[in-house]
């Protein structure tokens, strides 16, 4: 809508001047897809990604991702993986962050099929999802494992140096699933309201933007079926400012 009252003139019949005012005319609104604070959005998959630096074993990491409506990340294409590798994750000092590099659990498991002269096996997606998910190349086998273990879990290693990150340099490791490590969660995009609260599917909310008087329904992570309230300007006030986060709330700027 329009923030200030417009005064317009129009020549009517006979040369007389017609004066009219327009207050808060509703305009078409476009929304960009949003992720919760701390998550990175990738348009190619309409997904959000976040690295958790607190060290957890693979199974605990799975549960943490599920609590935020996601899962350990898998990748559908090289472009998605390159997007992940290019991100500047928040690498403050943590016991599970190696200097200059970052390794985190992702959503694959290495199933061992042969233990003769060398360990042989194949990658599987830990939690079946899209059939388009690609599988990593042969891994670097990590810590020593007992003869009872038949499954190792995937760690993706990327680097903190910008040149290495933007060239997509990375490695895949198959590690003991009970080792503690950082991990990468992936979830579908979501709705976030004007006050940075996450909104569940089907609920009403006011999206981020320039109009705190919009009420929309969250559908597939997008604001839809939006309705706008129109506000009259404050009476007895010539100059005023609208509150950017409260509908129909004004501050009078008159002396």
From TrEMBL:
C-type lectin domain segment(s): 44-186
InterPro entries, A to Z: C-type_lectin-like (IPR001304), C-type_lectin-like/link_sf (IPR016186), CTDL_fold (IPR016187), IDD (IPR042378), VWF_dom (IPR001007)
GO CC entries: membrane
PANTHER family found in the cross-reference section: INTEGRAL MEMBRANE PROTEIN DGCR2/IDD, INTEGRAL MEMBRANE PROTEIN DGCR2_IDD
Full protein name: IDD protein
């Amino acid at each position: 809508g329009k923030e200030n009252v417009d005064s317009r003139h129009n020549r009517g019949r006979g040369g007389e001047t017609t004066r009219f005012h327009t207050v808060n005319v509703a305009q078409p609104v476009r929304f960009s897809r949003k992720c919760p604070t701390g998550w990175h959005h990738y348009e190619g998959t309409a997904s959000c990604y976040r690295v958790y630096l607190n060290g957890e074993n693979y199974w605990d990491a799975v549960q943490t991702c599920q609590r935020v409506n996601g899962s350990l990340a898998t990748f559908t294409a090289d472009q998605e993986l390159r997007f992940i590798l290019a991100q500047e994750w928040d690498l403050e000092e943590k016991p599970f962050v190696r200097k200059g590099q970052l390794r985190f659990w992702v959503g694959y498991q290495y199933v061992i099929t042969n233990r003769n002269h060398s360990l042989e096996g194949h990658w599987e997606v830990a939690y079946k999802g899209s059939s388009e998910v690609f599988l990593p190349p042969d891994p670097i086998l990590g810590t020593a494992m007992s003869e009872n273990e038949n499954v190792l879990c995937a760690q993706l290693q990327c680097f903190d140096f910008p040149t290495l990150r933007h060239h997509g340099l990375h490695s895949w490791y198959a590690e003991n699933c009970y080792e503690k490590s950082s991990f990468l969660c992936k979830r579908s995009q979501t709705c976030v309201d004007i006050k940075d609260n996450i909104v569940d599917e089907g609920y009403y909310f006011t999206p981020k933007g320039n109009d705190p008087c919009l009420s929309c329904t969250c559908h597939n992570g997008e604001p839809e079926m939006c309705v706008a309230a129109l506000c009259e300007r404050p009476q007895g006030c010539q100059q005023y400012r609208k509150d950017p986060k409260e509908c129909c709330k004004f501050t009078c700027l008159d002396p």
